[in-house]
Design goal:
Number of domains: 1
Radius of gyration: 17 Å
Shape: globular
Structural class: alpha/beta
Strand content: 5-15%
Helix content: 25-40%
Distance between the termini: 20 Å
Strand order of the largest sheet: 5-2-1-6
Order of helices and strands: EHEEEHHHEEHHHH
Amino acid sequence: MPVLLNTAYFPPVSYFALMARDMKGVSDFGSGTPSLPLYSVYIEACENYQKQSYRNRCSFYSASGKASLSFPVVHTGGTHNGIPVKDVMIDYSVDWVTRHKRAITSAYRMSAYFEYYSDGLFSILDSRPDTLFRLNWLITGFFISKFGLPVRMEETGCFTPAGSGVYGDDFREKIHPKRPDTVLHDLALEKPYYQVFSGKYGFISNLSAMDLLFNEGPESILYIHGG
């Protein structure tokens, strides 16, 4: 069954768990086998931009505990209200890219797989896509590829009411930094994995997928798939 999600910057683990929700029992899941069926995941492109959401922010595990990163967007005409999320431009007038890369490096340079994946992620940031939607699309695609999810990303062609089913199961607004996220619990995936600073602060669940990938590498798929 296709799923519909909001665009997100370095999306949380639950975002990808929803993509893998209906894939239990698929043989060779996560192996990258080209014969596997592709599941459609629709990314909402036609909604109006909403601030204080995962559309331009993420959570990660820093040396001080849970922390967040966000990037600025261009306020056309002094506002971003009423602008389709696909058209929202990123503000590069301040060098937030360097700041984000430094924060991520500081947090994960001691993780087992940072060196394997950081160059690929940082190259996306360094390419400085013009729009929020394009940046998030590239980052999400990177994680889909590295997790080995048999997923085909598609963008919506029009805005649809909540629960309409036009683009499959509607999980827009299900994952939001200001509201409880029960996805991992509901899918029986709420379990710890190794984190660099867990000895100081304990396990922190459902951070950005980069936390899972940098720490678990190829085994990440077993976490989001429940294997």
